[in-house]
Amino acid sequence: MLDLSLNLAGLKLTNPTMTCSxxxxxxxxxxxxxDLSQLGAFVTKSITAEERPGNEPARIxxxxxxxxxxxxxxxxxxxxxxxxxxxLLKKMPCPVIVNVAGHSFDDxxxxxxxxxxxxxxxxxxxxxxxxxxxxGLTFGTHPGRLRELTSAVKKVLPHKPLIVKLSPNVEDITxxxxxxxxxxxxxxxxxxxxxxMAVDIYKRRPRLANVTGxxxxxxxxxxxxxxxxxxxxxxxKSAGVPIIGMGGVQYWQDAVEFMLAGASAxxxxxxxxxxxxxxxxxxxxxRQYLEKMKISRLSDIVGALELPGDQPKTAPYP
Amino acid sequence: MQTAAxxxxxxxxxxxxxxxxxEHYRLVLRLPQFPPTEPGQFIQVACRDTGIxxxxxxxxxxxxxxxxxxxxxxxxxxxxxLRRPFSLAGRSDGPxxxxxxxxxxxxxxxxxxxxxxxxxxxxxxxxxxxNRFRLPAVNEIPLLVGGGVGIPPMLYLAQKxxxxxxxxxxxxxxxxxxxxxxxxxxxxxxQDSTEPxxxxxxxxxxxxxxxxxxDDGSYGFRGFVTQALERYLDRTFPAGKQQGGRPVIYxxxxxxxxxxxxxxxxxxxxxxxxxxxxAMACGMGTCQSCCIRLRRDPARDGRAFEGKDWIYKLACxxxxxxxxxxxxx
Lengths: 318, 329
Description:
The complex is a heterodimer of chains A (318) and B (329).
Chain A: E1 6-8, E2 11-13, E3 17-19, E4 42-43, E5 60-63, E6 66-69, H1 77-89, E7 96-100, H2 105-116, E8 123-127, H3 143-156, E9 162-165, H4 173-182, E10 187-190, E11 194-196, E12 199-200, E13 205-206, E14 213-216, H5 221-239, E15 243-246, H6 252-261, E16 265-268, H7 270-274, H8 278-293
Parallel strand pairs in A: 3-16, 4-7, 7-8, 8-9, 9-10, 10-15, 15-16
Antiparallel strand pairs in A: 1-2, 5-6, 6-14, 11-14, 12-13
Helix pairs in contact in A: 2-3, 3-4, 4-5, 5-6, 6-8
Chain B: E1 8-21, E2 24-31, E3 42-45, H1 73-76, E4 84-87, E5 90-94, E6 97-105, H2 109-115, E7 122-129, E8 140-147, H3 152-160, E9 166-172, H4 201-204, E10 208-214, E11 221-222, H5 225-236, E12 246-252, H6 255-268, E13 271-275, E14 291-295, H7 298-301, E15 310-314, E16 321-323
Parallel strand pairs in B: 8-9, 8-12, 9-10, 10-11, 12-13
Antiparallel strand pairs in B: 1-2, 1-7, 2-6, 3-4, 3-7, 5-6, 13-16, 14-15
């Protein structure tokens, strides 16, 4: 019997596939196109205290093996989220993680505090790393501020696991990862998109109205993998804090790479736009991999990557 | 009991991918089943093979100086990543399933890949997506205004008019970029005529006469499709006079053209249904990238964007069809 289940800081998932915030709507937008009950967990679009219209179009542009987005956290805001989306989330056939963004301590604590008492919310993920919003403080790049924010949110969220999503647009991601853990994060998710741009060479203008956007898709996978591996080895493993790996995951092989590097679960974002069935296909592939490798529990491969100098842990290839 | 097909991700079979004119192809797809569709709706087409992994895990041998194998193909050769939205250009249902028709123009890597499809190939499509045109009422005269790759939804609309007399206005830069079949037995219209003729097969067979315009005068009226429309309206409905019914305008094409069409309609108090085009990633209302600015209407929009006189709507799920009078673009 192959076992894909896992425990993320008390949150039980039947399999390690999750959705990335901002790529799957608030609740049932994808319901016609994929079986949501087969997801390990569903992560909502970022919610902010106030409704946000988002950036001017053009908000996306495709680049080779990926895309740039500068949506600008367009969302319905906390009040409408509670009134219009929570009733839908109560019917979701898988655990729901609400992603929360903000531009001040009060914003974050107000929104996160409202999630603590909701039975339909399994966990909260903090978005401290949206690269496309110009107003407000940047939390994601400043370890001290990130530690304070995490601990402030933890206080208003005593009953739910807190996931903090890290930005790759920092000098040293282990510093922000460590600050987050010191602040009380239960789980880390990494990475968010990379700040990037594309140029219309005939108009001599940026192709996004926001000038820059976040790069996602297969193009960033090798970098994201490296960052997951580094955070796992340097900080998360010793602290016992699980990692949700993300960044360009498209095929089951990508998921295996992330898990070997130290991710307990993987989130799928941009690939959903191309193929909404991606999480299901990844689970099928993971089962085949386990069979081929004669491993019964998927969680056994988490962090099983051998680096030069490591004691050999795995059996030779069967 | 067989349940009706729901909107979903479907694997379709290419029946035909016919060259129409420079850069333009007509793609006919067959599906065992597909939900009911209406003109204005679109599908998201994967311009790549979703059935294979483009990043195989297999270790590959690389000989220096030789091209690399399939690993890393995304970075080795141009390949579209996201799906591309296409409005339906036609549909027919038969004993062997549903046939969907698209017209595509090579404008980049995705459509280049599409142009290379052959009969028998499979294509992954997602849909049907979006809202639809409101079909004309008994006392309405439909005027179909299409520009360039905005012409296809007008063809599907013509098919659904079921013999109701309509007039199509189609514009292109030049004759060989006009993805329509000009019938030989009608003399070519003169460069300054906006007289509707039965000279375009796709429209004529559905009882719709057409006015063709080209910017360079290489076929039909020399000028913009908007100029031809304006002339026609001034001639047929002078000073708001209605002859044989009330006109209703349907339009799809370049944004500048659609803005002008909406303006022309607005000045005359004519309803204008605009099928907008926006860059989009998902088509399912999740990525929020295909937003377009509309006048806010509290009755329609509830508490969304409270305190503002405008609202962003999504072309994929709120649209693609909006009323010209609501659009702030």
